[in-house]
Amino acid sequence: MGNAAIARGAIAAGLNLVSGYPGTPSTEVLETSAKCNNGSMYVEWSVNEKAAMELAAGAAYCGARTMVTMKQVGLNVASDPLMSLAYIGVKGGMVVLVADDPGPISSQTEQDTRTFAAFSKLPCFDPSSVQEAYDMIGEAFELSEKYHTPVLFRPTTRVCHGYASITVKDENEYRTNKPEGFVLDPSKWVIFPRLSYNAHINIEARNVTLSDELSDYGRNMIVPERAEGCRKGIATHGISYTYVTEALRDKSAPRVMKVTTPFPFPEKAALKFLEGLDEVLCIEELDPVIERELTYICGKHGLNVKIRGKLTHDVKNAGENTCGSAAENIAKFMDWEIPEKPEAETAPPLPVRPPVLCAGCPHRASFFAVKEAMKGKKAVFCGDIGCYTLGNAMPLDMVDTCLCMGAGVNITQGIGHIEPDTTCFAFVGDSTFFASAITGTVNAVYNQADMTLVILDNSTTAMTGHQPHPGTGRTVMGEIVEKIDITAVLHGIGVKTVETIDPLELKAAVETVKRVAAEKGVKAIIFRSPCAVIIKPKKPAVIDAEKCTGCKRCIKALGCPGIVLRNGRPAIENSLCTGCGLCSQVCPFGAISVTKEGE
Asked: The pTM is what?
């Protein structure tokens, strides 16, 4: 996998420390680092991306080679320290791996880290294949150390999760990096306005130098042999380069430029590419970064070259590219015959399979308990990022808002201050609580909000692959540590009412919600029940055909994939049912039963 290749490439480059926060498609980079750790590295899942960034920076101040991993929305959380770190700089090599998610496939946004690179004035590497990602990560460390700056490394989903056979270094070729240690120097490591002013001047000068240096970087490729007699060119990057290569297979034109370092942009290489061309098509994901740069260069140097792409609507301006879309874009640009779509692309559409909570997921019981308790009342349910976002699906329909990690706690407060007659709930998972909801809860207590915080504690970070967090009692390096008690944390920040209940005890859970929500101020309910994926399932539920009336309440109320229709009547799908027993408590006729523990 591309992510595994990146991790192994970083280790071969002398990695001393890696930190990060899980987020698809970046997660496996840190997990592979931990798996391949021979004891020479420190590896941690930090509580959020900001903490990971600052930890890696501290180690880089000591001369360590460090890597911090996240997805593109995680960069938003880490941007505060990173923007200042761009001015302060580092001593050891520091690579900030940000996995972008064109599509998006598993993200809230389609933001492009290449644009952030220009915004933060930091060098950026953009690999196009698994092999290149393995090789390039080491080169990113070298550039970071040479210029004493963090370097952004921006693979996308198709590189991160693509698989390939690659050539790797022998262990005797691995670099060993021995950090010098932290050297006291307040004039270097303490950021002040005057220091920042001088640093800004130096950064601008450095990036001009880097643009020239990167123009000679071998991975910023120009393929001139395809340009004989052709005055058209294609500029591309990353995984889109492989799509372009595929589309041009066995064709003699046009000239192609692969931009591997989108910032600082390799201007001299671009001028060489543009020489003798009349038109250029830019095929890229996601922002028109290359298109804008080439347009600027043409204007700056008075070149009469038409630059086309997203801004000219020759390439779609959202979503990921494919082999098919690249081939079609190129055919139109070159006035070639539009290629027929392969059979796989013309096949009938697959059945619609909307994402749902797993069979036996305790979050379903938590949402249902709150829904039952709030029947007939004016209430709002603010969600968050995690498996429980799927609580928005029918028939639960229990997520009214979802913005970003930790936001639900604060959005709830805003709604409550404007609509004081609304009963406000904020749902957040145990991992997200530690990552970004604690501060929102402090804000609620301090500013005397009236809300109910519902913590869905399934003892893991489920959506991204069951990584540990401060409440699980273990670390990614396998250490057993003291669990951080959510109840104690809530009491410590001033939440007086905190009640814990198993949501699968439906009647008690409903009564708990009614009682706690009726109180004024900030109060909390912890629904504690382990993720259905990490426990051994019980025997499947059984439906008594004689008692079942076919009312379908079990299906209409819960939407559990473990209950299906057969011949128009509810039936248990034994391969999915975990025996959680929620449906047996919902059935009004006692037609569903589960085996109790010990029976």
From this structure: 0.88
